[in-house]
Every structure is written in C-alpha cells, then in structure tokens.
Design goal:
Layout (H helix, E strand, L loop, with lengths): L1 H9 L4 H4 L3 H18 L1 H15 L10 H13 L17 H21 L1 H14 L2 E2 L1 E7 L5 E7 L5 E3 L10 E8 L1 H7 L1 H4 L6 E2 L18 E10 L4 E6 L8 E4 L14 E2 L17 H20 L4 E3 L4 H8 L12 H7 L2 H4 E3 L3 H25 L1 H7 L7 H10 L4 H26 L4
Antiparallel strand pairs: 1-10, 2-3, 4-5, 5-7, 6-7, 7-8, 8-9, 11-12
Length: about 450
C-alpha cells in the first residue's frame, strides 16, 4: 500500500495530472487522505488510548482515574461562559452605514448562537484539546425546507478530520471531513450517482443473530464519504471510498469565505513550530498516572488482606461460638473456659493475625500517592487552579494576588480558547455577510 501511494504521488506533478480523469481524480484524493492518515497514525493511537482511559473503558474500579479528575477541573477553567460578540468598524470615522452593518452582524450572531446553544460546541472542542490534543470546529449553513438559513458552529469529531501536509496552519491547502451517509443522504448529493454507491459500513451491533453482518438490511448500513475542501480550486468534493468512478458531487465555493476553509485554526494542547501533528497532553504525565494506578492497586490489595482474623485452641470452640453472638456488655457461660485459663490463659489460646505492619504500609502508600498526585497537579496546571482558589475570610489583596498569579500558566491556554471563539465569530460574520440579503 505504501509503495503504491508513493508511486501514485510521484507521478503527479501538476494539477492537470491530478484531475486527468474522474477515476484518477478519486484515486488521487483517496491516496492523499491515506497519506494524511498515515502522518497522524501514531497520534490517533495515543488519542484513542487516552479517550478510553478518560471514559474508564478498562480496569474499572482498580485505578485512580486522575485523567478524568484533571480534565473536569481544567476544562471549566479554560471555558466557563459563552462569549458575547463585539463587532466594530476598524476605523472610527463617522459612517452610519458601517455602524449599522456592524450592529446587524453583532445581533445576527447573538441570535444564531442562541438558537443552537454555542456553549456545548466550545466545551466539546476544549475537551478535545485537553484529551486528544487538538480541538476542531467548523461553521455551516443549514437550509430549511422553506429556504430559511441557519448559521451554526459545530465541533468536528477528532477521528473524522484530515488535513493537507503543512508545518504551519496558514500553508494548509485542503482539509477533509468524514461522513457516514445513508442512501437518502447520498441521493440528496446526486440522485443518479447516489443510487449507485455501495454501502460499505455496517453500524455497530447491527449483525444478525448468527453474528453475520452480510445480511444486515441497508437501513443499518452507511457509505463512507469524504467532504474535501480544496483551497487551490475553491471547490468542495464529495468522494465515496466505495465508488471510484468519480466524485459524488462537486460544489463551487459554497460559502464565499475569504480564506475558503470553514474551520478556524484548531486549538492545540502542545504546540511546536515545526509540526501540526497533535500531541496528547496526557502523554507528558502518563508515567505518573501509571504510578498512581500501581499505588492504588497495591493499596487495594493490602487493605483486602488486612482483615480481623485468627485461630484458637479447639478446646475454646464453645466459648468462641458463644462470644460471636454476644451484645455489648453481655456475658455468657462457657464449659471449657475455666480449664483453658488454668492451663495457659485465654489470651494464649486465641491468636489474632497482626495487622499493624500492614496499616503502616498502607499509610506510607497513601502518602506516596498524594506526593505523586501533587507532582501531576504541578505538571498539568491544576495546582495553579488550587492555589488561585480563594476563601471569603481572605483579604481583598490576597484574593487579587491569587487571581493574578494562581492561574498564570493557564492564561496561555485561556487566550487560545478566546482566540478560537473569536475566530469562529469572525467566520460567522464573514459567512452571514455573503449569505444574507437585506430586505
């Protein structure tokens, strides 16, 4: 497969060769998507493992899910309220028309974001940033049956996004979104071609009683379709993996955006100047999380072993059985107790397993786990959030200092979240300016 992709890529030198025939056009784009997938293959594996760990898919009840706790703490610290659009003219000379246009766009964005609740979109993207290492969202125009239009921002599922090769976001020439489409969706794209595309994906748990998915009805099947936005041609291509005769449909610049692409620059948890491949932030402190899991399992095993138990002389069986049912302060007569006391004493006839050493060991393990947790907090920035929390009894100066310095390391991430929300609003404003018409 790799050799085939390299050969195919090596024979393409111009855009005309890329689009030489419809079937070559589809093959070349699918090759480009596979190459993009290969570039981020290692990250996708790490992202899947991180997501499984956050969702507690494995070793339930045996680990300390510090990833879940940290994520639930940092996400609200990065995004906790919906931003308010503030649109102004670049130059402040008196211009009634420009002022009116800015006011109309500002109110239009406020109304549109209230119609579909902008907050969950931002929360999903911020959580993707914290877990998988990259958060992506896009703007879309949703056309109603009566021709009405809604302008929405929606998060992009982390594993359904591909991009062209580049080291800087400004150099990206294309991006693609994966869809699982029904027959109706395919026909809506193109009535003739949509009816011919094989449905190549079966929904999860849709197999028959015998475990065979080949006889599943088509209503439980989908076709994998890539929506590709090509900046160089300002066209959008819909290409199905199971149909190589040509694209399903081609759309000419649907939104008229200045940068053409419908996504702002994604949010990255870990950034470098030489690559756009995401990095899961969790990998930076995964060894410490594994150490916490080991300590937690060891504590659970020792606590399970530290039980009140022992053995006794068989001659004391009657006395021991009677003591089991006694209430507080109650006494009972035993037949053999006097003989045992004369021979060696009751304390010699009963032996209780010592647990003092286990208790001390558990205490030390708890302390080691707390030290490990503190180190994780320092690495992830949760310690800054904890230091920045205030109490009502503190002075105003103390609270101001904590607010200023307690979240110092989080400020860069918060600025990135603010930048992302601002860019989404800019795309919405650009989109509305192109799509809306004043009466």
């Amino acid at each position: 497969m790799a050799d085939t992709e390299e050969q195919a890529a090596g024979t393409i030198e111009t855009k005309a060769e890329f689009n030489e025939t419809p079937d070559a056009f589809v093959r070349n784009w699918l090759t480009a998507i596979r190459m993009a997938d290969k570039e981020e293959e290692s990250w996708r594996k790490d992202a899947k493992e991180t997501l499984d760990r956050y969702r507690y898919e494995k070793d339930r009840g045996k680990n300390y899910n510090i990833l879940f706790a940290n994520t639930q703490t940092t996400v609200p610290a990065l995004y906790n309220s919906e931003p308010t659009p503030d649109i102004r003219r670049r130059f402040m000379q008196r211009d009634p028309v420009g002022d009116a246009a800015a006011t109309i766009l500002e109110r239009a964005i406020s109304i549109q974001t209230e119609m579909y609740d902008f907050g969950p979109c931002m929360q999903a993207v911020v959580k993707d940033r914290q877990l998988q290492g990259r958060g992506v969202a896009r703007v879309r125009v949703v056309t109603g049956p009566n021709g009405s239009k809604r302008f929405v921002c929606e998060p992009v599922i982390w594993d359904d996004y591909r991009r062209g090769p580049a080291k800087r976001w400004e150099d990206i020439q294309w991006e693609a979104f994966r869809h699982k489409m029904t027959r109706e969706d395919l026909v809506d794209l193109d009535p003739k071609i949509g009816a011919l595309i094989p449905l190549d994906v079966t929904l999860d748990h849709a197999e028959t009683e015998k475990g065979d998915s080949r006889d599943v009805p088509d209503m439980f099947k989908r076709a994998t379709v890539w929506e590709i936005w090509d900046k160089s041609t300002r066209q959008v291509y819909f290409i199905a993996e199971s149909y190589t005769a040509g694209p399903v449909t081609v759309v000419e610049d649907p939104y008229g955006l200045r940068n053409f692409l419908s996504t702002p620059r994604p949010m990255y948890a870990v950034t470098t100047s030489d690559s756009l491949i995401p990095i899961c932030e969790f990998l930076e402190w995964k060894p410490l999380a594994d150490e916490m899991d080991t300590l937690t399992k060891r504590i659970s095993a020792i606590v399970a072993a530290a039980k009140w138990r022992g053995i006794y002389d068989g001659a004391m069986a009657d006395a021991v059985n009677k003591m089991k049912g006694l209430a507080d302060g109650e006494l009972a007569a035993a037949q053999d107790a006097a003989r045992v006391m004369q021979q060696s004493g009751i304390d010699k006839a009963i032996w209780i397993m010592p647990v003092e050493g286990l208790v001390q060991l558990v205490k030390q393990l708890y302390e080691a786990r707390e030290q490990c947790k503190t180190t994780i907090y320092e690495i992830t920035g949760v310690a800054d959030i904890l230091r920045g929390s205030t109490q009502a009894s503190e002075t105003a100066t103390a609270q101001q200092l904590k607010a200023q310095w307690g979240s110092l390391r989080l400020q860069e991430a918060q600025r990135d979240v603010q930048r992302f929300a601002r860019d989404l609003y800019r795309l919405l404003a650009d989109l509305m300016s192109e799509q809306l018409e004043l009466p």
